[in-house]
Structure formats: C-alpha cells, structure tokens
Design brief:
There is one protein chain. The protein is of the alpha/beta class and 373 residues long. The chain has two domains: 210 residues, FAD/NAD(P)-binding domain; 136 residues, D-Amino Acid Oxidase, subunit A, domain 2 (D-Amino Acid Oxidase, Chain A, domain 2), CATH 3.30.9.10. The chain has nine helices and 20 strands. An eight-stranded mixed sheet has the order 6-7-5-15-16-17-14-18. It has a six-stranded mixed sheet with strand order 9-3-2-13-20-19, with helices on one face. The chain has a four-stranded mixed sheet with strand order 1-12-11-10, covered by helices on one side. A hairpin with a 2-residue loop joins β10 and β11. The radius of gyration is 21 Å and the shape is elongated.
C-alpha cells in the first residue's frame, strides 16, 4: 500500500519547507520528499538577505510580493524560535546601497524614485559617518532601514523542524523518479523506495525544477541553475554595521563576526566548484569596497545554484495539462525572502481554492512554449 497524504512537496529547501510549515499548521497531511537533505541546495548557500527593494528599480508585482513577505518575518521567526528553539538570527540591520561611479549614482536615484519613503538618500559625507570603513570612492548611497537578514541555513532548518512538529513527514535522500497518473490527473509520486499518493503535488525543487519536470512530463518549465560563488572573511572587529550593496557585489556582516562576500552570477549548469576567476573577482570587490579587508583571513568559500526563470520572476501555481500538479520555484536571488509569502499563499490556494493575494503574474501558464532564454 502506498503512503497517502493531502499534499506532497517535492524539494526541501526554504520554499518547500515554508510550504510544508504553512500546510501542516493548517492541519493538512503533508510530506516533503527531498533528494538530499533539507537546505542542501541554494538555501544553505544563500546570504540570507531580505532585500525586496532590490527590485525597486522596476516596481510591480515582484516588489509588492517581496515587501509583503518581509512583513511576515518578525512574527514567523518568533513562532519558529518558540516552537523549535532554533534561532534564525533575524536582524533588521538595514541595507546600504552605494555608488562609486556617476552611472551608479544615477541608477540609485532612479531606484529611489520608486520607493522614496523607504530609501533615504545619503551624500558622501553621510556615508563616511555611517560606515567609516567604506571606500573613499563612494559618491553617494541610499539606506533602507526596514530591510534585514537571517541565517539562511538556520531559517530553513527551523521551518523543517516546525513543520515536522506539526505532523509533516520529512523524507530525505528520496529523489522523485516518476509521477503517478490517471489520464491528466496526478495521483502522487514514485521514489526509489516506492509510491506516495496525494491529490496535490507541488514541485519546489529549486534549480532542479525545470530538469525534473522535463523528466516527469516531457515538458520542462524554464527554471534553470544560476551559479553563485561566495566567500566569508574574518575581521578583528566588525568593519560594517549594515549590509552593503555596491557595483559588483554585496557585503553581509554575520552574527559570528564573519563578513560574507557575494556573489557571482554564472551560467555554468549544475557545477558548484569555486573558480580562480570567481574568487579573485569577489576578493577584489571586497578590497575595493572596504580597503581594511586587505589583510582579513578567508574563512570559507562555496558556490550555490539559484533557480533562475525565463523572465526573472517566480513561477507559482498549477501546471497546465497535469491536474493536481503545482510548481513553486524560479525565485532566483530571493528564495529566502520570498519563502514565507510563497508558503502562505500557496498553502491557501491548495487548501482553500485561492490565495488571499493574487499570484496571477507568476502563473506557470505565462510560458506557453517553455524555452530557456
């Protein structure tokens, strides 16, 4: 006999675990089927920045979704800490975006035009008072005090643990190798250990979503890996108090005293090796942005695979031609930020028939002919 659930979530990253958390909190019988272990992909490699205003230069549904998700974090983190004892290290440290060129300064002004109340403009002297360690080449900047960060691995662990406490079943080391179907109706999944049945299956497999759907349906959605290399350096004392974005990367001060330097954005397939070129670029960026880091020790280097999409927006909703099959992927650089709102709205849609906020701009159906750009 196959195990039976209300919803099967394929993928145990931040998105899949958030969905399982909200589903199980609502009383649904849910299992997470993860090919490796929770957070093994992008969720362990991410910097954990909660930066919806990174989309401010465009405005629109991506910015709105990100801002709404950011508003969920304080209450969600308190719930997770209280129930699991895992601290996701939520820190409303604010994000400072700086420009060292006239072109960059113009871009900052343009972004501020979309969110004038959220972004405070700073002249060079203001930057120096706020962050004395910054390069003297910084011409101006913007400060957003409501943006924040978490520890991405601990946040994902807390979501998985909280979902388990509410009855969700976590099945690690279980790659999905097939779908159970009756005509167009999806009835569950097949793993190497056997069959799992549910009337709803959600594929939230991050950068592997497109490949997996291609194998299962012969009709892949345009979700593909974007490699990001990053590293962490140490310092005798914290050189920065805010997350700093500059031309070429970002610097994120962490609770353990390290400073995360990121990140490349590469079309390299599923390769996760660090390269000389990638690391050299990150080190050069760090030194130029905070000159005092020239003698900082390198603590760690790694690379992760972000789930890019055909148009840069998440893909959320039912898959055409496969009743009961859903997708929640393509979050690119914003998977940690968008995990709460994705989990909440997708759980509402699955259990109540529609989400409280429309996800129409992110519907899989917008890709009539799935192709990689």
């Amino acid at each position: 006999m196959a195990d039976s659930y209300d919803v099967i979530v394929v993928g145990g990253g931040a998105i899949g675990c958030a969905l399982a958390y909200y589903l199980s909190r609502a009383g649904a019988r849910v299992t997470i089927v993860e090919a490796a272990h929770p957070g093994a992909g992008a969720s362990s490699a991410a910097a954990g920045m909660l930066a919806p205003l990174a989309e401010a230069h465009e405005g629109g549904p991506a910015l709105d979704l990100g801002l709404e998700s950011l508003r969920l974090f304080p209450e969600l983190v308190a719930e997770l800490e209280g129930s699991t004892g895992i601290r996701p290290d939520f820190d409303r440290c604010g994000i400072l975006r700086i420009a060292t060129t006239l072109e960059g300064a113009t871009a900052l002004q343009g972004a501020r035009g979309h969110s004038p109340q959220a972004l405070q403009f700073l002249e060079a002297a203001d930057l120096r008072r706020l962050e004395p360690a910054l390069t003297p080449q910084a011409l101006c900047g913007t400060l957003s005090i409501q943006e924040a960060q978490v520890s991405a691995p601990r946040f994902t662990q807390a979501l998985a643990a909280a979902a388990s406490q509410r009855g969700a079943v976590l099945q690690s080391g279980e790659p999905v190798v097939g779908l159970l179907r009756q005509g167009e109706r999806v009835l569950g999944v097949v793993t190497r250990q056997g069959e799992l049945r549910a009337p709803q299956v959600v594929v939230a497999a991050g950068a592997w979503t497109g490949t997996l759907l291609g194998q299962l349906l012969g009709q892949p959605l345009p979700v593909f890996p974007r490699k990001g290399q990053a590293l962490a350096v140490g310092a005798s004392r914290a050189p920065l108090h805010h997350i700093v974005f500059a031309e070429g990367g970002y610097l994120t001060p962490k609770a353990d005293g390290s400073l995360l330097v990121g990140a490349t954005d590469e079309d390299a397939g599923f390769d996760t090796e660090n390269t000389v070129e990638g690391v050299r670029g990150l080190l050069g960026f760090a030194h130029l942005t905070v000159p005092a880091l020239a003698h900082a020790p390198i603590r760690q280097m790694w690379a992760g695979l972000r789930p890019g999409s055909g148009d840069g927006l998440p893909i959320l909703g039912p898959v055409q031609g496969a009743l009961g099959l859903w997708v929640a992927s393509g979050h690119y650089r914003n998977g940690i930020l968008l995990a709460p709102i994705t989990g909440k709205l997708m759980a509402e849609w699955l259990l109540e028939g529609r989400p409280s906020v429309s996800l129409e701009p992110f519907a899989p159906s917008r890709f009539a002919t799935p192709t990689r750009p």
